[in-house]
Each structure stands twice: as C-alpha cells, then as structure tokens.
Write a structure and sequence with these properties.
The complex is a heterodimer of chains A (487) and B (100).
Chain A (H helix, E strand, L loop, with lengths): L1 H5 L2 H9 L5 H14 L6 E4 L1 H16 L10 E5 L26 H8 L3 E6 L35 H8 L6 E5 L5 H7 L2 E4 L19 E6 L2 H11 L29 E5 L9 H16 L3 E5 L7 H16 L17 H12 L2 H14 L4 H22 L5 E5 L14 H5 L6 H6 L3 E8 L5 E8 L4 H15 L11
Chain B lengths: L9 H10 L9 H15 L34 H5 L5 E2 L2 E2 L7
Antiparallel strand pairs in B: 1-2
C-alpha cells in the first residue's frame, strides 16, 4: 500500500503507463487511505463505486494503448465544482441536497483526460473563509501536528488536507483571494492559481465572478503542471474564458532560471509576519540567486490597500451571486405563508454567519448612496493595484513573496472576522490583478509546520511560473510527510 | 466613506437585511452590527488613496464580452430543470401564494 501512496502524480502516471501498477490497485489504495484518514474530515462525499468503475475503464485504455494524459489517476474534487449526479453542496446547508444535472467544464476536462474521481472535498462555505471553519459540516483538520488540531487553511481546506494526507493523489481547488495558495502553504503542498480566464468558471458555484479561478493542489510542481494541462482551456460557456492556447506545461519543467529577473517587493515584509517565514523567504531569495537569477528590489505601493479593496469587491459580487438562493429553483426552502417571508427564512436558515456577513457588506456597499463611496472606490483602487504589477513587470520577470504571514493556527480559537481576513494579505493582490501565482513548501517552522513561498508571474505566463517554481522546489528539497498522512 | 466608529446602526442593519432578504434573529443583531462596523472601518482605509483620475476596473481580462449567435443549442430538459426544485407542479416552480 505504502509504495503506491509514495508515488506522486507524475510517477504514478509513468508506473501506470509502464503497467507496473494498475489504476484499480492505485484507486483502491486511495479509497483505503480515505478511510484511514477519515478523522480529518476532508471528504464530504466518497463515490467508491464510481471510482472503481472509472479505474477499470482506465485500465482497459492503459492496456489497449489509448491512455490519455491523466489516465487512471485518482483525484478529489472541491465541493464548489458541480459534478453530475454527485451531491454538490459548496459546504453550505442551503445546498445540502443539491445534485447537479450537469458537469462543470473543468471536471469534465479532467474526466476526458482519464482522471478517476474519489469524492468531493470540504471547503469553507461558498469558499468564504481562510480556515475551513465556516463549512456547514464542520472544519477539516490539517494532517500536520495531528494531535494539536491545526487548521488546513481555506477555503480549499479539504483539498489541501487530502493531498497532504495522501487520501487524494491531487485535488482541484478554487481561488478567489488565496483559497488555493493559502491552504497549500498551511498543508505543505503545492497550489497553483492560474491567470484569471485560464480555467472555465462554468459549473463552479459562483462566489466573486471577477476573481474566481480554478486550479490544482498537488504534491509537486510537475504534478501541478500535469493537472493544469488538463484543467485549462477555452470554453464558450464562460464569457470571461481566455481564448488562448496554453503550451504543454511539462515542456517547461527544466528551463531553469539563469538570467531571469526576480522582483522582491518591499511591501511584503510587514509587521506581524513570523520570523521563521522571513528566514525561509530570505533563504529562497539566496537559492534563486545561486541558481543564476538576478534579484531586484521592487515596490508595489498600493499593496496595503489590496485587502480593503478585496473586502468590498468580493462581498459585492457575492451578494449578487448568492441572490439566486431563494428557495424556488433549487436548494433548501424554509416554508412560510408569504413569498417574502419564505425568502428571508430560507436564506436566514440556509446560510452560515460568515456568508451572511459578506452578503450584508456586499448589499450595503452596492446600495443607493454608498455605491460610489465604496464599490466604485474599490474598483479604482483595484486598477491602481493592477498598474503596480504592470510597472514592476517592466523591470522583472517574476515576483517572489511569502504565501502567508503565519503558518497554520489551531482550530477553534475564536477569531474576529478581520483577523481572519489578514491571512490572505499576500495572496489577494495577485487575485485582484488576475495574475497567476503558485505556493510551494520550502521548509518547516520551529513547531514543525510547513512554510509556503509564493511566486507570481505576469498574465498567462504559467509556463515560466512552472519553470521558476521547479527551480525553487529543487533548491528547497522539501520532502517531509505530514504525521497525520496515510501510511 | 464616513470615518466614525459607528458606520451602521441596528436600524440600518435591519434595512440592509431587508434588501437582501435575510432573516436575522433579534439576538444576533448587535454582534452583527459590531462585525459590520469593524469591517467597514477597515475598508475605509481606501479613503487615503487619491483616485481622482482613475477609471474603475471591473474586469481584468481586457477583452470585450463576446457575443454568440442566438441559436437554440439546448432544450427539452424540463424534468432536469425542475429536478432540484423544492416544489414543482405541472412543469412549473411553485411558490407561496402572492395574489390575494
């Protein structure tokens, strides 16, 4: 069993193609590991029979020589992706019985390329949160320091925990302000948020439509490249989908970093950032320098205003997107004698506290008399943030930052909403600018928790992002396995 | 943006809740008002930024929203459309009575 779980996605894919292992035995190993690690609460739904059937189909294709790029690879899907005939709840009570009648484009792309579904992974409710604690069915536990019950981060907490616990070979996530990169950092794995428009949003439960973007959570940079190869692509059904062909990312793994210019923004070493993270950030800069990169100090002067702008724009879009949950067409309904009362009780009972807060903020900033002062102001600041990046990319090729100001924290420590929002301080700016970013693990802090470093590329430069991330990954040589992982 | 500690009070919270059709139990209103004031106080930092000659940015894609030809490419899936409805009848969604 353990040897099967030791293989990362790229290695497993080779072993499958060389017929050293079968998809059925690999899939069964992962199903067992889901059982062994069930106390982490990463999965909301396990589709064992479907997984077995898909694995058998894959084995046929592997034998008859028609194997596709992800043939036979068992993966987990964040519960924000609609999966046909499989319950999709977005970790919300209001969707607790929702069974989509169609498949999201991104997951369909994965099945078309031969991937095998293991189940649906927990997340913060409607992807709103940074600790996985807003999930209606309770938080997921980080497999690191398992006796202490640490947060896996959020919102893709189930995805990150499953990959780190080896109960999925890879997982999908969605990232609106850091929801792939922050949990990846907390769980010691790789998380890639592509350029806005790279992956279709069609069939993904909408949170903030000008920011939402799907991406992979994996063990390694190469694994992320292989997953994104399949997930990305133009889709007519998403009006913001980019009609641009992405090159095969596997061709960019060994391009190196010689002569590349790496920007170090002075605004990303703020008060409150942990000392261990600063140390590993400085180490990462030295590693890249030793590999031949040119290190250039840069400034992104509006960084401080990214979080406040985000907490106007994202709730505004969310309040509009979540208006659809009215108890009429799908989702839970709370019976009442009048239509208005039915709406109010359905929504009041169906949404959790954080979702309600964001709907309230969003409604307020869009309401008559406040729209210009809040919403338009935030959109103007968003432009300034985007221009900061455009100016810096005239001088450098990539930007290196810490992924988060701290490592994971203990679950259940009641935090006020604002303190929780600060988790995303380093990931939100790239989200507002629509830029691709990757977080990868580079070391452990004093208490043994993973530290993530983020690389940000210019729009649609995922190939370059992969090359540089691969260099950093090799320098860091992070090969620790969480103590709560399946053996 | 107002810079006071109290940007919204309970009557304002009632008004917003009404606009977004959210039932907020009376016991939760004070803590919700406090949370909203904290968040609105935090985002008020944006007042420091001079945006006098800046156009708002709604989308980062840089491309115009594409149009497609108005073709029927779907249909005859009434049962699928109604499948997740809390209540339906004769091909319709059913809601509480709205006309007396």
């Amino acid at each position: 069993m353990s040897e099967l779980l030791d293989l990362n996605l790229v290695e497993a894919s080779e072993a499958l193609k060389n017929k050293k292992i079968s998809s059925l035995e690999l899939t069964k190993a992962y199903l067992k590991s889901i059982g062994d690690t069930s106390s982490l609460g990463a999965y909301l739904e396990i589709v064992e029979n479907k997984a077995i059937n898909m694995a058998k189909e894959s084995d046929k294709k592997l034998i008859d020589g028609t194997a596709r790029p992800l043939e036979g690879i068992p993966i987990g899907i964040k519960d924000m992706f609609c999966t046909k005939d499989i319950k999709t709840t977005a970790s919300s009570k209001i969707l607790e019985n929702f069974i989509p009648t169609y498949e999201s484009t991104v997951t369909q792309n994965l099945w078309n390329d031969g991937a095998v579904i293991l189940g649906k992974l927990s997340c913060d409710e409607f992807a709103m949160g940074s600790s996985n604690e807003t999930a209606a069915k309770g938080n997921v536990i980080n497999p690191w320091l398992k006796n202490k019950k640490m947060s896996p981060g959020g919102s893709s907490g189930g995805s990150a925990a499953a990959v780190a616990a080896r109960s999925a070979l890879a997982a999908t996530g969605t990232d609106t302000g850091g929801s792939i990169r922050q949990p990846a950092a907390f769980c010691g794995i790789t998380g890639l948020k592509p350029t806005y428009g790279r992956c279709s949003r069609w069939g993904i439960v909408a949170f903030s439509s000008s920011l939402d973007q799907a991406g992979p959570l994996t063990r390694t940079v190469s694994d992320a490249a292989l997953m994104l190869n399949s997930m990305a692509g133009y889709d007519q059904k998403d009006s913001t989908s980019a009609n641009l062909k992405m090159p095969d990312l596997m061709d960019y793994l060994d391009k190196g970093i010689k002569g590349k210019k790496i920007g170090i923004p002075k605004e990303y070493t703020q008060d409150g950032i942990s000392e261990d993270i600063v140390n590993f950030y400085e180490k990462s800069i030295d590693w890249l320098k030793d590999e031949g990169a040119e290190i250039i100090p840069v400034s992104l002067p509006h960084t401080k205003y990214a979080l406040p702008a985000y907490y106007i724009i994202a709730p505004a879009e969310a309040s509009s997107n979540l208006a659809r949950y009215d108890g009429v067409r799908y989702g839970a309904r709370h019976e009442a004698s009048s239509l208005d009362e039915m709406y109010e009780l359905t929504r009041g009972n169906g949404f959790g506290d954080e979702v309600k807060r964001r709907i309230m903020i969003g409604t307020y900033v869009l309401s008559s008399g406040y729209y210009d002062a809040y919403y338009l102001k935030a959109q103007k600041v968003r432009r300034l943030i985007k221009e900061d990046f455009e100016n810096v990319y005239k001088k450098v090729d990539y930007i290196l930052t810490p992924s988060t100001p701290t490592t994971s924290f203990e679950l259940g420590k009641k935090q006020d909403p604002l303190t929780m929002y600060l988790n995303d301080v380093f990931t939100v700016p790239a989200s507002l600018a629509g830029l691709p970013g990757i977080s990868l693990p580079v070391g452990l802090d004093k208490s043994g928790l993973p530290i993530g470093i983020q690389l940000i590329a210019n729009s649609f430069d995922e190939p370059g992002l992969i090359s540089i991330a691969r260099v950093l990954e090799m320098c860091a040589g992070f090969n620790f396995i969480a103590d709560g992982a399946a053996k | 943006m107002p810079n006071k500690d109290t940007i919204v009070d309970v009557p304002t919270v009632n008004k917003i809740a009404r606009l977004c059709r959210l039932d907020i139990p009376e016991v939760n209103k004070e803590s919700l008002t406090k949370d909203l004031n904290n968040i609105l106080g935090f985002v008020a930092q944006l007042d420091e930024v001079d945006t006098s000659n800046v156009e708002p940015l709604a989308s980062v894609t840089g491309h115009k929203l594409p149009l497609r030809s108005d073709d029927v490419n779907d249909g005859n899936i009434e049962d699928l459309v109604l499948k997740n409805a809390p209540e339906s009848s004769s091909g319709f969604f059913v809601v509480p009575k709205v006309i007396e």
